[in-house]
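U., I forgot to send this yesterday:
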Amino acid sequence: RVLRHVGAERAQLESFNAQVLKKRSSVMNAAPTGIAFTRSNRFELVSAELCRLFGRSEHELLGQPTQIVYASNEDFFALGPQAVEAFRAGRAYVGEWQMLRADGSSFWAELRGRPVDEADHGAGTIWSVVDITEQVAAREQLEWSATHDALTGLANRKVLAHRLARVIDSRPRSMPAEVVMIDLDHFKPINDRAGHAAGDAMLKAVAAAITARVRASDLVARLGGDEFVVILEDLDASGLAAMQAESVARKIQSQLNEPYLFDL
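Result:
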């Protein structure tokens, strides 16, 4: 009777465990977010969405080191201390990292992690992974638009004012700096006769021509309309800064005097 009772209880327990596992599997497979349970930096449980995100099967992930899904080893080793710090403070970890797919392509992901047992971080961690590539691209585009001229890609007035303020505030300790102002002649007739598409093409070509004649460290900005500004920093300290700036200005002028051909 004892053996039958124990056997019946065991059967009930196995049935209950099987139902729990089935429900867990259903939840994992239905979850729209990638979910993983890791322990000792290895995958022990992964959802269908996580497998899809990384382009790997469950078999290819289970038991494997979590390091294989990071775009760089530096990112992997940097994440660990940050997550531990958050867990010790009683917080969930949240961060954005570049992740690696099986085909070698990468994507931006938001990682959220929380230990299974707050008192024992070695018991493992539950992670959620969401692809935020589009959000990151939109944010970067917004940040870029805030500091650049949309047409030419040059720095805008905001960046120009900030750089000028920095140059002025650093005087007289800094190396000499010069400002070159550029105003195009006869630009309005281009818009009037050939249309604004031609005018825009001309402004883009001018921006490229100016940029080609200065150093990478120099700032080229569009002041507005057909006006441009170049800030030349760290020039000759022996009193030849003005001559250097004049030389650059003449090179830009010579470049702008060349004919331009456009496909509109």
